[in-house]
Amino acid sequence: MKEFFFVVNPASANGTTRVVWDEIILFLDSKQLNYDYSLTSGPNEATTITRDAIKKGYKKIIAVGGDGTVNEVVNGFFDEQGKISIEDVALGVISRGTGCDLIKTLNIPKNYQGAVETLITGNTKAIDLLQVQFLNKEKQKEKRYCVNISDVGLGGYVAQRVNHTSKSGGGLWSYLRGTLLSILKYKNNSGIIEVDGKVVHQGEFSIVAAANGRFFGGGMELAPMAKIDDGYIEVITLVNMGKVELLYNLSKVYKGTHIGHPKVKHYRCKKLSVSSDEPLPLEIDGENPGFGGVSYGVVQKAIKVIC
Ligand SMILES: Nc1ncnc2c1ncn2[C@@H]1O[C@H](COP(=O)(O)OP(=O)(O)OP(=O)(O)O)[C@@H](O)[C@H]1O
User: Fold this and answer.
1) Which segments constitute the DAGKc domain (predicted)?
2) For residue 131, what pLDDT is reported?
C-alpha cells in the first residue's frame, strides 16, 4: 500500500490545477514520495474517491484543490454510519484554490513545495468539524461537515456570485469584487437566530456565520478569536446594518477589527440555528450546496490534519 493518496480537483484555481498538477507530480517524484492519485471529474466526486481510498487502506489522504475540494474530501472521511476510519487516517492539503482560507488558520504553506514539505514532516493535529444541517437544492434536509466557515445571508450571496464568475483575478480581488457588488444588490434576510437554544435575535440580519477557522472570503479575518480545536463554534452576526455601513466597515473585516462594532455580535457556543420563512443564501466552505434554515453543531477533534 502506498503512503499517500492525492485527490486532485483539476478545475480548482480557475482550471490551472490541471496543468500545475503535472509540475507537482515531478516535485513529488523528486522527493521520492510513495503515492497514488485520482483526478475528480465533477462536483462531489472528491467525496466518493476519498471514501474508496480510505476503504482500500490509504492512511494519508491529500486534497489538492481549494476550500471546496477540502470540504468534499473531509466529507469522504464519513458515511451515513459515521466516521469510516477511526484514528489512523489523516488529511493533508496542497492548496490550489483561489480563496485558500483554511490553510491560513492551519499554517500550511500556500506554495506546493512548502505544502509537500509539510506532508513529509508529517506532524498531525486533531481539529474540530462543524456539522451543518440545511436544505439541499431538492429542498430535502441534508447534513454535511464544514471545516472552516459557513454562513447564511450576505456571505452565501457573495459565494453564489463568485462561484458563477471567473476567479482569474485571484482570490483577494475576486472575493472583494464579489462582495462589493453583492452588498449593492443584497437585501437583508430575516429570521430567528438561536444560540445554545436561546433566541438572541429575531428580525433582519445581514450575515450569521459559524466559524471553526478564522478566515473566509479570500482573506477576511471574520473570526479572529476562533481556535480550530477548542470544541466551540464562534458565531459572528451582523444585524440591522445598511449598505453604506456595510461598505464603510468592510475593510475592517480584512483586519479582524470589526469585532467590537456595536452591530457586530460574537457568541461562543455548541449549537446555533437560524430559521426563516424564506430560503436563506447559504455557503459552506465557500460552496453553495443549498439553503438555510440551518442548524450547526460541533464535533471536537473529529479529524487529524497534517500541518
Ligand atoms: N473536474 C471538475 N470539473 C469541474 N468542477 C469540479 C471538478 N471537480 C470538482 N469540481 C468542483 O469545483 C468547485 C471548486 O473547487 P474548489 O473550491 O476546490 O476550488 P476554487 O473555487 O478554485 O477555490 P476556493 O474555494 O479556495 O476559492 C467545487 O464545487 C467542486 O465540486
Assistant:
1) 1-136
2) 98
pLDDT of residue 181: 86
Residues 137 and 27 in one domain: no
ipTM: 0.96
> What confidence tens digit (pLDDT) does each residue in 205-218 have?
999 999 999 999 98
Segments forming the whole domain that contains residue 252: 131-306
pLDDT beneath 50, residues of the chain: none
Q: Which atom of ligand 1 is found nearest the CA of 171? A: 27
Number of domains in the chain: 2
Ligand 1, atom nearest to 43 Cα: 31
What gap in Å lies between CA 201 and CA 217, rounded to an integer? 24
- Check whether residue 91 and residue 149 sit in a common domain: no
In 172-204, which positions are buried (b, 16+ CB within 10 angstroms) versus exposed (e)?
Answer: eebbbbbbeebbeebebbebbbbbeeeebbeee
- Dihedral (Cα; 175, 177, 180, 185), 10-degree rounding: -100
Supply the pTM of this predicted model.
Answer: 0.95
Q: Is 178 in the pocket of ligand 1 (CB under 6 A)?
A: no
Is the same domain home to 100 and 189? no
- Nearest protein Cα to ligand 1, atom 17: 68
Instruction: Kindly state if the Cβ of 153 falls inside 6 Å of ligand 1.
Output: no
